[in-house]
Write a structure and sequence with these properties.
Keywords: Signal
CATH superfamily of one domain: Immunoglobulins
Oligomer: single chain
Pfam families: GSDH, LGFP, PKD_4
Number of helices: 9
Distance between the termini: 122 Å
Radius of gyration: 45 Å
Shape: elongated
Number of strands: 72
CATH topology of one domain: Immunoglobulin-like
Protein name: Sugar dehydrogenase
Helix content: under 10%
Largest sheet: 6 strands, mixed
Length: about 950
């Protein structure tokens, strides 16, 4: 049974509660690496089903047990675990996760002898998954002896050898609870997994059925007109593989472990009509490759009560095993009402607690309290409430018991035999005292002799071929544990020779792995060979786990190599002689792998979902899987356009060939998108001459006749001709920022321009044949724009430049034959000066004469004159009659005091001049003189 998951697949046999009890068990304990809380003891009962076979178990009235095997065997065990026998071997399809996986005992078993089994069965053209009711036949002593009268209650086709029909629970009210996985491909994104969302299909659901297999009327989608319809049977949906679940005795609701795919395992308290989200969600996380499917649009997700991540950490695992609520009284009070669950791959058991609303009140502890406890695939309760679970790794039932005082030690014994000397070496050192007390070891060899010590040797006398040896271990308080071991002193170990493809051989998917075996025994001659196989999935070496596979018998055995990613295959040949001595040899077939690498023409999220969403991985030759490209690059604007050499769709199913493989996803940047969509633009710019360049937040690409730029603030815009030449020479986007317009013509058709923006500051470059290309930006550009751009001052004839004193900035302009300027300082702001006033200012040595303009050129109130004021306290006034003249200092102050041009003096006719040591300016109505002695004095003509 493929229990565990291929990184993306942890097809764990997750455990369900059965109402029956398990009476005291006998046998050996867990290995020395097992860690349990103080006072707990772990004891075992061997079911006789063997490694990788035990899937489920149930208790019959009276305390005996029925256990199921993946290969179809149903085995009966006495209440003490001894005297077991196989009562039936049913036809099954044991591939992958499938086989005989579930059993429940009818509540009226005492009178009906009915049980329920879930299994997969081969049929022509495929297989079906079936829930059946059987009648247990009994022998004259009342002991179960067989199964008869199969009645199919539920049957659906299967699609893949994973996530099949799972747990069955026979409730006290006569109804049945049933879980079934999505039956979807685990190696790739499979749209078939969306069956889990469709209430008209039973896959990926927990179902609630009547005893004859119809829907229970209280189900959320029940249709009284069609009680046998799939929707009528659905209690909850959106599961990937709810292999094991239980019914909480207080809530009356299923509590399920749903096995995850790429990263998360979850435990769900399942409400009526809830949607657990698969395949659109894994736990509380949207799933790469699935969440973008149309069928996932708007899918709600009921959050799990608890989720944990894949890995080998203390609070991590790889295949959740749903469990049961402890309702006994022998454990400490802290464990009462606590939910026990585990992880099949992580070999651990956690506990947690939730309230009567299904809300978590006590999270699982980190680390887990029970570790290295085997591979739990089913939880149930003993008669006193003790937690019991099926360990598929050993084929044993394991029981957690607790002693409040001194804990009874557990004996464990093994032996090896030298038949030539009839000497048996006994080893009891694996015995356990959970109180960590020192133990004494007493051996009874079964021939009347004894010895003490953890490891002893004993030579048996000739004449008797079999003995039963007994080991008793005792702690300092006198508590004892006992185990027995059968020995055959004169028996030779069977000899087994394995013929293999060799340790260096590697295999592609579906390539046959063929082995041979020959077995002989000194006492028995040729022995029959039994084969078992397992797929060992290793997402990492720390998280390797086995998926039990198909077995067989004979001197040869062959299977196709597994398609499970990150996996190898173990083939084990076993022979057992008449004395019960066993020899086994294992051959490991390893994959022939090649590296798959995903690249994008732009940075983007590219993933191999089956490998956990990475963008590069070693994958087995011949494996088919999907790769997935995000619709947008990591920049949020580059669009996926297709795979090079592959489809235009984001998902591509590929098969690994005989060499490494690199797959490239094409992304069209915003520059590509505009260029490719605009034929006129392509004709204007010509062919690209260089690759696209990314410089910080700006991208650009050079073409024969220009460039395309992209930025988040400006979008995709082109710059051409002299404007581009100036832009690049001026410092490009580092100085002016990216373009916010294409290169365009001004309304008068004379110029070309582009606008730019740099951190919110707008700049421009304007070009005319007469003026050339010049940059204008900042406060000077704002002033130019306020004066109506080129329609006001004309076109710039300079770039913005600094004045010689380092204080000001300016641009010069020309409109026709008229020259203008805008000057800026931090104290005066930006102001325009042009025409005759500018000529006068220039004649007076610009800012070195009168200072910087503090006003734009402005008209006087009478509409006759024009003027500019300047920072040194001077002004220039102009009229057509008087021309442009500067008024300065004390003379300007006197003129201003008289009312400027509104006074009797009117407008100046001269600049200020000096005659005979007197400063003087002449006006239309008179003049003003200034001396230090007399100050400023005005006089009429």
């Amino acid at each position: 049974m493929a229990l565990g998951k291929v990184r993306t697949l942890r097809h764990a046999l997750v455990a369900a509660v059965l109402a029956g009890a398990l009476l005291p068990v006998v046998s050996t304990e867990a290995g020395a690496a097992t860690t349990l809380p103080p006072g707990f003891v772990l004891r075992e009962t061997d079911t006789g089903l063997g490694q990788y076979q035990l899937t489920d178990f149930a208790t019959l009235p009276g305390g005996s047990l029925l256990a199921t095997a993946k290969d179809g065997r149903v085995r009966w065990l006495t209440e003490t675990g001894t005297g077991g026998k196989t009562i039936a071997t049913l036809p099954t399809r044991p591939d992958g996760d499938l086989g005989l996986v579930g059993i429940a005992v009818a509540p009226d078993y005492a009178t009906s002898h009915s049980i329920y089994l879930t299994r997969s069965i081969n049929v022509t053209g495929g297989f079906v998954m079936r829930l059946s009711r059987f009648t247990v036949t009994v022998d004259p002593a009342g002991t179960p002896s067989g199964l008869t009268g199969e009645q199919s209650l539920f049957e659906v086709p299967g699609f893949y050898d994973v996530h099949g029909i799972d747990t069955v629970i026979a409730a006290a009210d006569g109804t049945l609870w049933l879980s079934i996985g999505d039956s979807a491909d685990f190696t790739k994104v499979d749209p078939g997994a969306l069956r889990a969302q469709d209430v008209n299909q039973p896959y990926g659901k927990i179902l609630h059925l009547t005893a004859d297999g119809k829907g229970v009327p209280s189900n959320p989608y029940y249709d009284a007109a069609a009680p046998a319809s799939a929707a009528s049977k659905v209690f909850a949906r959106g599961f990937r593989n709810p292999f094991r679940f239980s019914i909480d005795p207080n809530l009356g609701l299923p509590v399920a472990g749903d096995v995850g795919w790429t990263a998360w395992e979850e435990v769900d308290v399942v409400q009526r009509g809830s949607n657990q989200g698969w395949p659109c969600w894994e736990g509380t996380h949207p799933i790469s490759g699935y969440s973008g499917l149309a069928g996932c649009a708007g899918v709600a997700n009921q959050p799990p009560i608890f989720e944990y991540q894949h890995g080998s950490g203390t609070l991590q695992g790889n295949s959740v095993t749903g469990g049961i609520v402890y309702n006994g009284s022998s454990y400490p009070a802290a464990y009462r009402g606590v939910y026990f669950f585990g992880d099949y791959v992580g070999h651990k058991i956690w506990t947690m607690k939730y309230d009567d609303q299904g809300k978590l009140t006590q999270a699982p502890s980190d680390p887990a309290p029970f570790t290295d406890i085997g591979g739990p695939v089913k939880f149930a309760a003993a008669a006193n409430g003790d937690i019991v679970y099926a360990d598929i790794l050993s084929g044993k039932l394991r029981r957690l018991s607790y002693s409040a005082g001194n804990t009874v030690p557990v004996a464990n014994a093994s032996s090896t035999t030298d038949p030539v000397t009839r000497t048996v070496s006994f080893d009891g050192s694996a015995s356990v005292d959970y109180d960590n007390d020192p133990l004494t070891y007493d051996w009874n060899f079964g021939d009347g002799t004894t010895a003490t010590g953890p490891q002893v040797n004993h030579a048996y006398a000739a004449g008797t071929e079999t003995f039963t040896a007994t080991l008793t271990v005792r702690d300092p308080l006198g508590a004892t544990g006992t185990t027995t071991i059968a020995v055959a002193p004169g028996n030779h170990t069977p000899q087994l020779t394995l013929t293999t493809p060799g340790d260096t051989a590697t295999f592609a998917v579906n390539q046959q792995v063929t082995l041979g075996a020959a077995a002989t025994d000194a006492e028995d001659g040729t022995l029959p060979v039994t084969w078992t196989s397992a797929v060992r999935h290793c997402p990492s070496e720390a998280t390797c786990h086995a998926h039990p596979g198909i077995g067989g018998t004979g001197t040869s055995f062959s299977l196709p190599f597994t398609e499970h990613p990150d996996s190898r295959m173990d083939f084990t040949a076993t022979v057992t002689d008449s004395a019960g001595v066993t020899t086994s040899k294992t051959y490991t077939a390893r994959p022939r792998q090649h590296r798959i690498t995903l690249l994008g023409t732009q940075p983007a999220a590219l993933s191999i979902p089956v490998e956990g969403g990475v963008s590069t991985a070693l994958v087995t030759e011949g494996a088919s899987f999907d790769v997935d490209a995000a619709p947008l690059g990591t920049d949020g604007v580059s669009k996926f356009t297709g795979w090079q050499g592959g489809p235009a769709t984001a998902t591509w199913i590929v098969t690994v060939g005989t060499s490494d493989l690199t797959l490239t996803a094409n992304y069209a940047t915003p520059i590509d998108q505009r260029y490719d969509a605009d034929a006129a633009l392509r004709a204007k710019l010509g062919a690209p001459t260089a690759a696209e360049v990314t410089d910080g937040t700006v991208r650009y690409r050079t073409y024969a006749n220009g460039r395309l730029y992209w930025s988040a603030v400006g979008g995709t815009k082109y710059v051409t001709g002299p404007v581009l030449t100036k832009y690049v020479a001026f410092g490009g986007h580092a100085k002016l920022g990216p373009p916010t317009t294409d290169t365009a013509a001004t309304p008068d058709g004379v110029a070309q321009y582009n606008h730019f923006v740099n951190n919110g500051n707008v700049g421009s470059i304007y070009y005319t044949a007469a003026t050339g290309a010049h940059a204008i930006y900042g406060e000077i550009r704002k002033k130019w724009a306020a004066l109506d751009y080129e329609r006001g001052l004309g076109y710039p004839t300079t770039d913005e430049a600094g004045t010689p004193d380092g204080i000001g900035r300016f641009n010069h302009f020309v409109k026709g034959t008229n020259v203008g300027s805008i000057y800026y300082t931090a104290t005066t702001g930006a102001h325009a000066i042009y025409g005759e006033i500018r000529k006068k200012w220039a004649a007076l040595d610009y800012e070195r004469g009168l200072g910087y303009p503090t006003t734009d050129e402005t008209g006087t109130p009478d509409g006759v004159g024009r003027y500019n004021h300047f920072s040194l306290g001077h002004s220039i006034y102009f009229t057509a009659a008087t021309g442009a003249h500067a008024v300065k200092g004390e003379i300007r102050k006197r003129w201003a005091a008289l009312g400027w041009e509104r006074s009797y003096l009117h407008y100046p006719r001269t600049d200020e001049y000096v005659t005979n040591g007197v400063y003087r300016s002449d006006f239309q109505g008179g003049y003003i003189t200034f001396t230090l002695a007399s100050g400023a004095v005005d006089r009429p003509w």
